[in-house]
Amino acid sequence: MSIFRPALAVLVALATPLSAQAATTLYTDVASFTAGTGATAQPALPFVGVFTGSETVGDLTFTNVSGNTIINDTTWSTLIPGREVAISGREDLDIGFAAPLSAFGFYAHEPSTSTGVTDGCNTTCVPSLFSLTLYSGAATVGSVAFNIPDDTLAFFGLSSTLAFDRVELRETTGTADNEFFGGFYTAPAQVPVPPAAPLLAMALGGLALLRRR
């Protein structure tokens, strides 16, 4: 038995998960984002209408947090390609994913004029600040703050070295005036090979050889 105990100790040590720190990168250019992360565009949003709970659209699940969430049958932002998500309240929204991701991005539009719903804030326009927080289950993976330039098609993408399965978009400063979000991009998380895997295979082979002896 004494022959196997050292090898067994090696096996236990190698099988212990290694700790890791997440590193996140913020992109504001869609070409750099797709080139750097391998992300691809999600299908265009279909007409959903108003919903107050959760709504799954393709690989994305939108969960209402503040006010009514709306994916309209006509565009409200002429800058964002396709339909967009709008909220009749503070722009707080949770987005879940069908599978873990390594990167997530989207277009955003913040109007500065109250000329109505289309390309307008539909009320008194107030500059807003936002945060985007990545989660894996209940654990926070990373977070970034951003500001949408007025009357501009802006893009924001966030990549992470740790996989995440949900993002929380929060309007940290601002009111219920309109901001729009759409044109979503995702990159699936790669399943990493543990650094200890080759050593673990060698240890298993060593055990098999000792058993034969």
From TrEMBL:
Keywords: Signal
Signal peptide as annotated in the record: 1-22
Name of this chain's protein: VPLPA-CTERM sorting domain-containing protein
